[in-house]
Amino acid sequence: MRRRTVGLAVATALVATGAVGASAATAPAPTLVKTSDPKGDVSAAPDLTRVSLTRGSDGRLRTSLTLAAAWDGKALLADSGPPGSVCLKAWTTSAPPDTVPDYLVCVTADADGALRGSVLHERANKLPERVSGADVSRPSTRTVTLRFSQSAIGNPATLHVAGEATRPGCPRVSCVDLAPDAPKTLAFKLKTG
Predict the structure, then answer these.
(1) What b/e sequence results for 142-165 when a residue is b if at least 16 CB atoms lie within 10 Å of its CB, and e otherwise?
(2) Rounded distance, CA 91 to CA 97, Å?
(3) Whole-angstrom Cα distance, residue 157 to residue 191?
(4) Neighbour-count burial of 54, counting CB atoms closer than 10 A to its CB (0-12 exposed, 13-18 middle, 19+ buried)
(5) DSSP per position, 81-139
(6) Where are the domains of the chain?
(7) Which of 3, 43, 115, 191 has the most CB atoms around its CB within 10 Å?
(8) By C-alpha distance, which of 193, 191, 4, 188 is closest to 96?
(9) Going residue by residue through the chain (193 aa), what tens digit of pLDDT does each one get?
(10) Alpha carbon separation from 139 to 14, 61, 84, 155 (Å, rounded)
């Protein structure tokens, strides 16, 4: 009788362990893509040194963009010309890097320097259209994090992304820093299987 009880306990433990192992194997693993860019590789633009993208526990996408030096919203304001921005460029249907991204997830600043996050849809021969907001947080004085719903950018199987920091008041290409450097992008799988 004792042997049977011990055998039953061992069998139950093995089944329980197998069930836990099976559920852990089928649970989607958190995905994180990131890149680093050398500090000091640009002089005419904000120096973007790190870009990451992951899916948060709430299901939203979360990108973090880090500059080499501390900055605040007032650093994005321009006396004249276009404002500065820190953005995630996202290709959902077009092929990077030879085409413009389909979406931009950007942080800009209002007249008081308060940060504002937006998801913008690029349109041929038109200004980008704001399709959604993005929640902005500052984990450090060098980093900004933007959280946004995947539904704002559609449902691609793979999202190709790159970070972009633009100096305020300067429309030239030399006033932009990319991470990773063009023509490279990061590939983020949104669908598995």
Answers:
(1) bbbbbbbeeebbeebeebbbbbbb
(2) 9
(3) 5
(4) middle
(5) SSPPEEEEEEESSSPTTTS--SEEEEEEE-TT--EEEEEEEEETTEEEEEEEEEEEE-S
(6) 1-30, 31-189
(7) 115
(8) 188
(9) 444 433 333 333 333 333 333 333 333 444 788 888 878 888 878 999 999 999 999 999 999 999 999 999 999 999 999 999 999 999 999 888 778 999 999 999 999 999 999 999 999 899 999 999 999 999 999 999 999 999 999 999 999 999 999 999 998 888 999 999 988 999 999 886 5
(10) 44, 16, 20, 28
Tokens of 41: 């590789």
Q: 90: which 2 tokens? A: 């996202």
Amino acid at 73: G
Beta bridge partners of 2: none
The overall pTM is greater than 0.70: yes
Q: Give, as one character, the DSSP assignment of residue 165.
A: E
At 107, list the tokens.
């942080």
